[in-house]
Amino acid sequence: MLAKSVGPRTQALPLIAPGLVHNRGAGIRMAMEAGAATSGAFDGIHSEIVDARTTKPDAVIWGHCYGIVVNGDCKRFYDEAKRHLFFEMIALEAWRDQKNEAYLIFDKPVSDKFRPGWVYQTTDIDPEEAPTIAELAQSLGLEPAKLEHTVQEFNAACNDKPWDTIEFDGKATTGLSPHKTNQANPIAVPPFYGFPLKTTLTFTNGGLTTDLECRVVAVNIIQIPGLYAAGEPTGAFPIENRIIGAQYPPMTTVLRSLAFGPIARTAIAGQLNAYGSQL
User: What are the residue boundaries of the FAD-dependent oxidoreductase 2 FAD-binding domain, all occurrences included (predicted)?
Assistant: First the structure.
């Protein structure tokens, strides 16, 4: 179902947590066979970049905006600070066009400010650390001369505006492709750090259409008796968050489950009580 809706190779995406292997869309397919209407972007996915070295679930690396991210050939491929901390679009780019291989590179000022802390500590493995960029490249399995060239080129392109890790600071590069629009601070103070990254699949955006009482509706907008849905089985973001689209609003899926789950539960309990009184 994933490959059919999103496209080739998506079924091979690593999963953010092992339990997701059981989520194969069976409930959605059965509801569709019963005539349920669908909503949301079936061709859209939510993905995250994680530490490629660990098997820990949800080992997300948030702070790519404070360094540079390179591919397996040590080349930058994305404006790391286009979106503050959010990882979804760079995750899609790494999977789609970079063979799902990327590396975050940063230095001591970034580490001192954010470690320990949630920005880099969701993983259970410390970043690779080295006194020089060349030695860091070796630790990451990259070509030292190529990574040194990329870092030197990046450092030379950074403007001299103050570095602000909270706001979009306009501390940008000049003459690079891709440009880094904010938080372009030179990577110059040892020790240097690196995380190998890969993209993982979190959830998809297609699902079932419901009314405000979480009743699944048919294609003719008539409620299907006894069928309810809430949270991720329902469709999400029919315009935003497609493969080349906008940003996923954080926590939206959890909030949908928290908001509509109790509504569905109450409706189902009421229906069961009504059936029981007729027996």
Answer: 16-234
